[in-house]
Design goal:
The protein is 46% helix and 8% strand. It has 120 residues and is mostly helical. The protein starts with a helix and ends with a helix.
């Protein structure tokens, strides 16, 4: 697990080296502003009832599949969410819509539905 976490920290470390400023704390999201990249509540709402959803900045494929899985295909054509940077600017709005969906499923159900469509 430590090896995996150090790997994810490399982006924050490299940004800190370039700017000579400490990185801001981002909680569960990533430094690059990917959206969605967050931990979402699932039912029944206990201490460990969360699912982590991440979409890549490299392509819109994850985003489009995610919209299909959560039944919000309209979000694929929303101009606010057209590109990864634009989605990063509207992460809070996106996260609200995703959590409306995740709260209807247990974490296992959500992971199976998302993973079945190729959404990490």
């Amino acid at each position: 697990m430590q090896d995996a976490m150090v790997n994810y920290c490399r982006i924050a470390y490299s940004r800190q080296m370039l700017t000579n400023k400490a990185c801001e704390r981002n909680g569960n999201s990533v430094v690059l502003g990917n959206a969605p990249c967050e931990v979402f509540k699932c039912k029944p709402g206990g201490h460990n009832d969360y699912v982590f959803i991440y979409t890549s900045r490299a392509t819109n494929a994850h985003w489009e599949r995610l919209c299909e899985v959560i039944g919000r295909e309209d979000m694929k054509s929303d101009p606010r969410f057209k590109t990864p940077p634009m989605r990063g600017n509207h992460a809070a709005e996106i996260n609200v819509e995703i959590e409306k969906w995740t709260k209807n499923y247990t974490k296992v159900e959500a992971m199976l539905l998302l993973g079945g469509k190729g959404v990490p």
